[in-house]
Structure to design on (208 residues):
């Protein structure tokens, strides 16, 4: 009896497996899943190139490291600029694709911290950056080009202004590599009269 039951179970299992295979093999052509077209090899290579860091990303290496800085900020109506100092640790991250900035210092006698990222978009063929810090609630976005002759990364964008309440204030920045141990950062925006004025100037000195 046990032997007979075993044979019945085995036969049922075989029938089910062959039945499933038969059913799958007999599906009408309309019900068969469409074969996914293979990506063209040339297209694949182009995509790989656009996804990988290249020559444009090499400038991040000259800006990486630990730096000390002194800054000046010109406030509208003030007789002299507000001065401060601090440190900046710049790290090349994500396989050479981005430069991360971590800044610590003081501003108006208060502790100050900021974090920024700079990258180069191979598809758009432009540098892009974001910046956020402990003094504001908005994120500054900008994009631009690098001039190899002057070793200057020029970018422009908009940001909100807590002093005026304006949501989109245009501005531009210039980050210049002076030499292996020295670089400068300048920020420009519209003054009270509507004309462009220098708002900030930062001098970086390599610490390590």
């Amino acid at each position: 009896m046990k032997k007979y039951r075993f044979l019945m179970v085995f036969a049922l299992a075989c029938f089910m497996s062959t039945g499933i295979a038969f059913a799958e093999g007999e599906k009408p052509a309309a019900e068969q899943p469409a074969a996914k077209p293979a990506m063209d090899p040339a297209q694949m290579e182009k995509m790989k190139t656009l996804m990988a860091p290249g020559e444009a990303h090499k400038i991040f290496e000259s800006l990486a490291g630990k730096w000390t800085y002194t800054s000046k900020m010109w406030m509208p109506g003030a007789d002299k600029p507000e001065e401060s100092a601090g440190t900046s640790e710049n790290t090349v991250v994500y396989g050479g694709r981005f430069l991360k900035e971590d800044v610590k210092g003081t501003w108006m006698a208060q502790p100050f911290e900021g974090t920024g990222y700079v990258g180069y978009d191979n598809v758009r063929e432009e540098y892009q950056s974001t910046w956020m810090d402990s003094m504001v609630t908005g994120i500054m976005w900008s994009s631009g080009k690098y001039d190899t002759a002057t070793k200057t990364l020029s970018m422009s964008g908009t940001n909100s202004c807590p002093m005026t309440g304006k949501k989109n204030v245009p501005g531009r920045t210039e980050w210049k590599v002076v030499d292996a141990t020295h670089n400068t950062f300048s920020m420009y925006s519209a003054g009270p009269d509507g004309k462009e004025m220098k708002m900030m100037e930062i001098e970086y000195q390599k610490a390590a």
User: Anything to note?
Assistant: Residues 2-25 form the longest helix (24 residues). The first strand starts at residue 65 and ends at 73. The chain has one domain: 58-206.
